[in-house]
Amino acid sequence: MDRANHSVVSEFLFLGLSSSWEIQLVLFVFFSMFYVASMMGNSIIMLTVTSDPHLHSPMYFLLTNLSFIDLGVSSVISPKMIYNLFRKCKVISFGGCIAQIFFIHVIFGVETVLLIAMAFDRYVAICKPLYYVTIMSPRMCIFFLVAAWMIGLIHSVVQLAFVVNLPFCGPNVLDSFYCDLPGLIKLACTDTYQLEFMVMANSGFMSVGSFFILMVSYIVIIVTVQKHSSAGLSKALSTLSAHITVVVLFFAPLIFFYTWPSPSIHLDKFLAIFDVVLTPFLNPIIYTFRNQEMQVAIRRVCSQLVSYRKIS
User: Fold this and answer.
1) Which of 68-82, 174-188, 296-310 is predicted with the least confidence, judged by mean pLDDT?
2) Of 185, 193, 182, which is closest to residue 165 (Cα–Cα)?
3) Which residues contact 182 (CB under 8 A, 6 or more apart)?
């Protein structure tokens, strides 16, 4: 049956984060600051790596793509969320909701693979330095990038394949500030228990499995380095700490959201804010403030821009 024949819902209503005008004003300032900061921070990383020949290496190639994905994370949800803070009726069209879910899951899949690729890059650099140039060749970097987007697209399409044709014939209120797939499925006018379980199991397995792979890879690196030299271990821990921090920030909210039996709505919203607003902002800080090479490159690029403006 065609969806138009059994679906009368053309838009969904968000309850948002608060009904208090004062709180919404505070949230507007808070979200706007973090949105602008995350957009600027990730854009600076992309500009610096692209412009500075000293950073044309596999690690920074992957970091640039991670920054691009973080721009996507911020852009898919934050503008609509900030705009809705000043609207009494916070609505999104059916098509807009489906598009938001699609891009959220694409980004989730791509970022997961990129983080695994970055862990592999660090493993090769620390444990097999003599073979680094051979293993992490430009072809391997392109392979990781293509694989990331393919897995992200497949993951998103699989998630949505069973949802777009569900009948939505009455309830259209989402107790959230964005379109999340589990919340949308619950509004369907049919028994969705099996579908909810499949969606939660799919994303939950992907989150837990990827996090496990990453943690095992970091443990292998640390154990391997420890066997060779204690000085090398200190350097390896310094290098890996930024990567481990980003991995925990990205996966912890997702794992809790998809594996906890019945979290509260308020906890769900807090975890969503953390993943959507704070993580894209923190990633540039973690990778730049703890990376001397990146700091030097940023200053070098800024100096070149200033010199170019003076000449112009």
Assistant:
1) 296-310
2) 185
3) 196, 199, 200
What is the spatial distance between Cα 153 and Cα 165, in angstroms, rounded to a whole number? 19
Task: Break the chain down into helix, strand, coil percent, rounded to 5.
Answer: 80, 5, 20
CB–CB of 88/129 below 8 Å? no
Determine the 3-state secondary structure of 270 from DSSP. Answer: helix
Any residues with CB less than 8 A from the CB of 101 and at least 6 apart, and which?
156, 159, 160, 163, 179, 180, 181, 184
Type of residue at 51? S
**Rounded CA separation 243/227 (Å):** 21
pLDDT digits (tens, 9 = 90+) for 85-141: 888 788 888 888 889 999 999 999 999 999 999 989 988 888 888 899 999 999 999
What is the DSSP secondary structure assignment for residue 170, as one 8-state letter? S
Of 105, 115, 114, nearest to 153 by C-alpha is: 105
Q: Does residue 2 have a pLDDT over 50?
A: no
215, burial (CB in 10 Å: exposed 0-12, middle 13-18, buried 19+):
middle
What's the confidence (pLDDT) of residue 6?
47
Is 117 within 8 Å of 86 (Cβ atoms)? no
Q: In what order do the strands lie in the sheet with 91-93?
A: 91-93, 11-14, 173-174
> DSSP 3-state assignment of 264?
coil
The span from the CA of 172 to the CA of 90, in Å, is: 12
Tell me the whole-structure pTM to 2 decimals. Answer: 0.87
Which residues on neighbouring strands pair with residue 11, listed in sequence order?
A: 93
> Which pair of tokens denotes residue 208?
């837990």
Q: Assess whether pLDDT exceeds 50 at residue 206.
A: yes
Side chain identity at residue 76, one-letter code:
V
